[in-house]
Design goal:
Layout (H helix, E strand, L loop, with lengths): L23 E3 L6 H12 L5 E5 L8 E7 L2 E7 L5 E5 L14 E3 L3 E2 L6 E2 L5 E3 L6 E3 L2 E3 L17 E5 L2 E5 L7 H5 L1 H10 L5 E11 L3 H8 L2 H7 L1 H5 L9 E5 L6 E5 L40 E6 L3 E6 L2 E9 L5 E10 L4 H10 L11 H15 L5 E3 L17 H14 L8
Antiparallel strand pairs: 1-21, 2-13, 3-4, 3-6, 4-5, 7-8, 8-9, 10-11, 12-13, 14-20, 15-16, 16-17, 17-18, 18-19, 19-20
């Protein structure tokens, strides 16, 4: 990731990070409205690339979708010439949402309140009563003589489409997306998005009563996976005693958890896993039947791209998980399941079957939803306490195992840098 300079401060929003550094996470980061507001300003509206969709969602000129970056509403459009644009979904007149539909096709965008019209590039093209209204032999009202359409378009974000994936940033000085990732993270991103045209499989959405960072932490946390998820552990999909590793970029903000599927046999490593059930069986074993399709032997790769995207490969089910904050105490999680246009019919069936592992009621991820909401309720009881994050040490190093919380520490290392905290500084 390219280096981003943020001046560290002794305190941020009146808060000081614990002296133990990123081996502690203060509970107020999940609760404080001022910290949440700073996250929106310095992270989501700051120097970051944010996922907004897949090109396969907008195949034709005039196609659009609405989504958010942090809690800022945006519109993704494909114009008449086929170019992609990302626009703040806020009318330049009175701030109303311009576009209400989640998806659609139109050659213009019109605000319902006063019918200001914009083209798909975000340029203002029409204003009712701009020249006033005839009243007898003269006109009344209208815009001032120096009013210019050019000065009142929708706010335009920087856009980069990368092998079928669309990213946007409020910061027009952002480096190319590949530089933002760094070479290690690019390997895992390009492993999935190698240039093959994508095909949408389906969508699910859920709202959780928890802070958005708990979702990001969850995917950076292999510790819980062998302890919470009965299905993962019992059927050998993701287990602490399997060949695995945790890798990060140089900032710690991006990371991957990588593992290779094993069997259902007990081992010395399963003795601490109360969730391991060696006698569990599936009535339909085809649920877990899959194919090798990528350039390495890894069967599970969970990549987290700062600040709020999860790229998921669990066997042959592929999905983007987009985290949309809704204040300090809630977020929406949008799952975009996808495959490739080149998939044959059998692979399409495999992806659909395996999608049952994920989503709000998935055989695996349903556990996470409850755990995150329980965590939010727990931290709210004592906001000045800290989480203890020392499994695998106190540093932010890559590891060749999953018995570690190193990626969580790495996330907070970069999070502190972005917000201006000095983790571990003397008070």
């Amino acid at each position: 990731m390219a280096t981003i300079t943020v001046k560290p401060e002794p305190s941020v929003a009146g808060r000081v990070w614990p002296k133990e550094g990123v081996a502690r996470v203060p509970y107020w980061v999940y609760l404080d409205p001022e910290i949440y507001a700073l996250e929106q300003q310095r992270i989501f509206r700051g120097p970051t690339w944010n996922y907004v969709g897949l090109e396969a969602e907008l195949p034709k000129s005039g196609d659009f979708k609405t989504t958010s970056i942090g809690d800022a509403p945006v519109i993704v459009t494909r114009d008449r010439e086929g170019a992609l644009h990302v626009l703040l979904n806020q009318c330049a007149h009175r701030g109303s949402r311009v576009c209400r539909d989640p998806y659609g096709n139109s050659m213009k965008l019109q605000c319902i309140y006063h019918q200001w019209n914009y083209d798909l590039k975000g340029n203002l093209t029409g204003v009712p009563f701009r020249g006033g209204v005839a009243a007898g032999d003269h006109k009344v009202g209208g815009m001032p003589a120096d009013f210019s359409l050019r000065d009142h378009g929708l706010q335009k974000l920087k856009v980069e489409a990368v092998n079928g994936v669309i990213f946007a940033s409020f910061d027009h000085n952002m480096p190319p997306f590949r530089d933002y990732l760094g070479e290690t993270m690019w390997y895992y991103f390009e492993r999935i998005f190698d240039g093959r045209p994508l095909r949408i499989v389906g969508y699910v959405r859920q709202k959780l009563a928890a802070n958005w960072k708990l979702m990001f932490e969850n995917i950076k946390d292999p510790y819980h996976a062998s302890l919470l998820h009965v299905f993962l552990v019992s059927f050998g999909l993701f287990r602490a005693d399997q060949k695995s590793k945790v890798e990060m970029d140089q900032t710690g903000g991006h990371s991957v958890l990588v593992s290779r599927k094993g069997d259902q046999k007990a081992s010395q490593g399963t003795t601490d896993m109360a969730s391991f059930k060696s006698d569990y069986t599936l009535h339909d074993p085809s649920l877990l039947a899959g194919r090798k399709e990528f350039k390495d032997e890894n069967t599970v790769v969970m990549q987290t791209l700062f600040p709020s995207l999860i790229v998921q490969q669990q066997t042959n089910t592929l999905a983007m998980r987009q985290i949309l904050p809704l204040g300090p105490n809630a977020f929406e999680l949008v799952w975009d399941f996808f495959g490739y246009e080149s998939d044959d019919q059998e692979m399409r069936k495999i992806r659909l079957r395996q999608a049952n592992l994920m989503g709000p009621s998935g055989l695996v991820s349903v556990d996470d939803s409850e755990a995150m909401e329980m965590c939010q309720k727990g931290v709210a009881a004592e906001a000045d306490a800290n989480a203890f994050v020392e499994l695998g040490g106190r540093e932010c190093n890559n590891e060749d195992h999953m018995v570690t919380e190193t990626a969580i520490r790495g996330f907070y290392k970069h999070y502190c840098h972005m917000l201006g905290f000095q983790p571990g500084a003397s008070h």
